[in-house]
Amino acid sequence: MEDNRISNFEGETAANFLEDMSINGFGMISMAINRMFDEDDRPDLMECEEALVACEIVAATLGQPAEDLPEDLNEWIGMFLPYGSEPYGIICGLAEKAAESIDKVVSDSELRELWEESPVFEAWVDAQVKLQERILEKDQ
C-alpha cells in the first residue's frame, strides 16, 4: 500500500474468502456479515477482513462497486447474483446489516487495532466509511 490506497481485496484472507465463496456459494456473504453480530465473541482479525470483503460484494451487487473490484469477482456477481434474481434480492437485503457490520469493524475490532498502528489508519477508516456510503446509497 505504498500509495496509501486502501483495498479490502488485498491480502490472503480476502483471496481465500473469495475462493471459498466461488466454491461454496453466495451464502458465505451473509455468514461473514452475520458473524460480526455474535454477542458472545468479539470479531477476530480474519472475521473482520472477511466481513469487509462481503460488504464490498453487497455494494457491488447494489451497483456501487469499489474502483478496484477484481474483474473475476465482477463476473461472478453477474453470473450468480444477476439483477432481479432471488440471490440478488437476498444479497441486497443485507445492506443495512452490512453497514452495521462496518461500524463494528471500525469502532471495536482486532482489525481496527492493527490499522491503528499504521500511518494510513485515517485512510483505512475513510475507505470503510466510503464503503458504508456506497452500500447505503439511496438512488440505486
> What is the CA-atom radius of gyration, in angstroms?
14 Å
Strand residue percentage: under 5%
Give the low-pLDDT segments. Answer: none
What structural category characterises the helix and strand content? mainly alpha
Shape: globular
Biggest sheet overview: none
Please, what is the average pLDDT?
Answer: 93
Notable features of this structure?
single chain; 140 residues; mainly alpha; globular
Describe this structure in words.
This protein is mostly helical. It has one domain (12-136). The protein contains eight helices and no strands. Helix 3 packs antiparallel against helix 6 (95-107) and helix 6 packs antiparallel against helix 8. The radius of gyration is 14 Å and the shape is globular. The termini are far apart.
Topology, element by element:
Elements: H1 12-24, H2 27-34, H3 45-61, H4 71-80, H5 86-92, H6 95-107, H7 110-116, H8 121-136
Helix pairs in contact: 1-3, 2-3, 3-6, 3-8, 6-8
